[in-house]
Task: structure prediction
Amino acid sequence: MICYVLSDTTLEKCRMTIQKNRRWIDACELRIDFLDEENRAIASSFPETVDIPVILTHRRKIDGGQFTGSEKQRKAELLKAMDGAFAYVDLEEDLKRGELDSKAERNGIKIIRSYHNFERVPDDIYAKVMQLARRGDVAKVAVTPHSVQDLITLFNAERENRGIDKIIIGMGEYGMPTRILYRRTGSILTFCSENETAPGQISAQKLRELYHADEVNDRTAIYGIIGNPVYHSSSPQIHNPAFRAIKFNAVYVPFLVDNVRYFFMLAELLKMRGFSVTIPHKIEVLSYLGDITREVKQIGSCNTVVRKPGLWKGSNTDYYGFLRPIENDMDEGRIRRALVIGAGGASQAVIWALRNRRIKVTILNRTLEKAKAIAKVNLCTADTIENAPLYAGKVDLIVQTTSVGLGEDVSPIAGFPFTGREICYDIIYKPRMTRFLKDAQEKGCTLHFGEEMLLEQGKLQFEAFTGYHYPKQVHPEI
Ligand code: ATR
Result:
């Protein structure tokens, strides 16, 4: 079940929120601590006015809620609300049993016994689950992972607490995979809410339409992307719709990763079939691969990892992803000399790809030493960015690989005298039209966008993951 957490101040607003999200959700949690006093007094009427099961919750400030009154008052308000046809009531583990329990039993309301920890994942979490569930209640633990190691602990709950009705939630940024793969923690439901801006939160629409979280089962093949940061990535939008189009029971999930070694352990635990790798793990991941392609060996970085019998195999689709949009121009001999701006991680695949096509390359970088070092191993030349104008009219292709222009309207070669004959290619994809490309367009240059490379490398990853071509009918929004 996908359960929507209602945090509106009136019941009417809550109903409107449900209506808006209805096609993506199966249940909702009515947080009466968010309701104004008037509406809280009539909360019992709510379940009959909606067509999905409702969880009743009255959360204290210390557990992340809004309620600041006395325990006596909270209990009284809960008891009153329990006259309504709620499917579940959430009662914190330290709340005294007695009246609340017996009323729940009388009214056929199931109890969710909950434990919150906003600081960490406690060591004794499996014992906690058992303790919470000992009277047949649903055990809920909402804890805060800070590492991949913590995620391993949470995903192990499926095995450690098998057969227990439970809800395991990893809050915060690291917890996102537990919300998407909730069925792999053995949870009966996952929560979502309007407020996707809070770290680790995810919208109802995404859970249902992008991840199909409710359809993940034992046979679902799990793929993902590792990075830090990672939640800005468009790769889930590339892979998930394509899995669906070829009717492949698979899901692609973003993982915030602090430690690559532990991630490989998690990948074993989840029996992952493969994953994409982004900054800053493209080099570190090499230590854990049993096999790598020629490109990985040559470029020294890997962005695609696939499970093969007994080992993980790494490839680099950035290399071909970069080349594909300019393939025709190269075949037809229109590119002989290229200028590559930047000498960071991203430029290496670009330079190697160009050199392999026997294109003469000059690397321009703010820090000349870095450009020289890369130039040396790739047999090309190097210069500083300030000297860019010296190359005007002498190159057929200019590739922008620095982070300058990422989310801002600046170019690393502002004022460059384009002739209009150059092919200009920016590997930044947010924004689509960077300042560098705008300047080039004004002079009539041919443009190539970072999103072309992103999409092409993603399509090639899809092939590596599934063995199928990327479905033609899928046009991902990135
Ligand atoms: P990535 O892996 O994305 O390429 P990186 O390895 O940090 O990231 O490289 C960033 C590139 O952007 C480098 O070429 C960097 O130049 P330096 O080697 O001189 O650091 C370049 N870059 C970043 N900020 C820049 C700026 N303000 N002006 C010019 N170049 C910049």
